Amino acid sequence: MSVTLEDVAARAGVSRSLASLVMRNDSRVSARRREAVLKAAAELGYRPNAHAAQLASRRTMTVGVVLVELRNPVYTEIFTGVQEQAEQAGYGVLLTGGELLTADTERRAVDGLLEHRVDGIVLVGPRLTSKDLRELADRVPLVIVGRHVQGIDSVAVDTRHGTRLAVEHLVGLGHEDIAHIDGGKGPGAESHRRAYLDTMEQHGLSAYSRIVRGDYTEHGGRRAAEILLSSSHPPTAVFAANDLSALGVLAALKHRGMSAPQDMSLIGFDNTVLAQFGYIDLTTIDTPRHDMGTTAVTILTARIEDTGRPTHPAQLTPRLIVRSTTVTHPGV
């Protein structure tokens, strides 16, 4: 049985793509890794396949990344994982994005990457329709981060589980009147909404269920909080669809001379660096953002190497982080 490049990569403890770079004498590979690959090839008696090398040479060894919102710390932390894993695999990274991409601007960003002949694309928080995403996946190896679409490689957090953790944390503190500020039409928002309603129903609290439209931004969270605080019966607790929305709630409370948790318990979602600041100290749901980025690139490079492989929807597990913005309901 002939020795393959995968065998060499496994023996050297590197990725197949990096081993391929060594075989093509690419200058981007460190001397240490080059030596390890060449040693493994010699030990195994590996002989490069000329035809395969010709096909591989058509690659640019570059992956494109589209961030739907460059200022959102969730997306930038995901990108850090993408960049680190891509470098380890021997790929360069082209990044594009915007203030808050729409489907049209996202499509233009993708077209720009295709013009640069990237070998694959990672879309973080895509706004394109499922139909558009499937058509794109037919043109270029693609991984989407933040949602699952049938027939496309994807990486996402188990949003339903995270939402249950958030709502059940508040219920466990004795809260019943729990409102949800959602993410509007953003990725994962529908999953948040359904899980929130289901969890409230499971605890016999459907009569208290209320969802106010947000958009995953601080401004949207503040606007939604103003609606709740202006109602005849404001909730005793709020679950915001992300940390930025939760910051908007804090701003709305402060504007009224109120605070969390003294006047309202508050929980976010993502555990961004903002939530960890001592003067915010937000209770939230932690999502493994760095792992989302590294997993996306691992799946993408595997797709680049084998375009016929089965699609892989990866789902990562979130966890509850309790800080100071949630407390036991005063009536308990």
From TrEMBL:
Arranged from A to Z, the UniProt key words for this protein are: DNA-binding, Repressor, Transcription, Transcription regulation
GO molecular function: any one?
transcription cis-regulatory region binding
Source species, domain of life? Bacteria
Does Transcription regulation appear among the keywords?
yes
Quote the InterPro entries the UniProt record gives.
HTH_LacI, LacI/GalR-like_sensor, Lambda_DNA-bd_dom_sf, Peripla_BP_I
Show where the HTH lacI-type domain sits: 3-57
CDD domains linked to this entry:
HTH_LacI (cd01392), PBP1_LacI_sugar_binding-like (cd06267)
Q: What is this protein called?
A: DNA-binding LacI/PurR family transcriptional regulator
| Protein source organism | Streptomyces violarus
